[in-house]
Design a protein that fits this description.
Blueprint (H helix, E strand, L loop, with lengths): L4 H32 L6 H27 L5 H21 L8 H26 L12 H24 L2 H4 L17 H5 L6
Helix pairs in contact: 1-2, 1-4, 1-5, 3-4, 4-5
Length: about 200
Amino acid sequence: MEYQRPTVKAAVLLFIYFAAMAAGLVEFSLAAGYLTGQSAPTPGLVVAGAATLLAGLCFLMWALWGLHRNALVLTRYAAPALTLAAVGHVAAIATGLGSVPKFMSVSDLAAFGLVLMALAGTGWLRRQHKTNDGGAGAPPRSGRLLAAAFGAAVVVSSVATPGLAASLAGQHAVPHGEHGQAPAPGQDTNLTLNQGHHH
């Protein structure tokens, strides 16, 4: 229905920027892996690390600016930049760059998926601007928008979480529930770190 279009547009906008922020975080984790994952990074890894670090900064700045403006910003450059980022991740996976270290290919796949989400939403919103607004000046329905925001957050986090967990930082993270715990005197540290959750 036409009266629902403002709510749908607002929900898609939130989905785009949630995906972009999550992609930015995964890009940061990839950059850390490329730049510090090896004792002596190759020139290719340094370039990949710098590119993913720049991409992460751009995604986060774009998302925060767009959320502040409550609009799709930099529409002329968003789709080409997102497409370039997607192609870059495909190239990293295809050439094996994302497999150094091996677990980082999962992070590349997660970043690729998040970029595709943002790209699809951006394309949809741009098409809507070229058509009749159908009463788009009306405010979105808050209840439905809240539900849509929750759904978008769940979808985005389901892709971002495995990507972050597979990153270099995720591989070295302290298991949940063990923060601040010190091993008892004489206790094997490796045994302490490998204990399961006790909730």
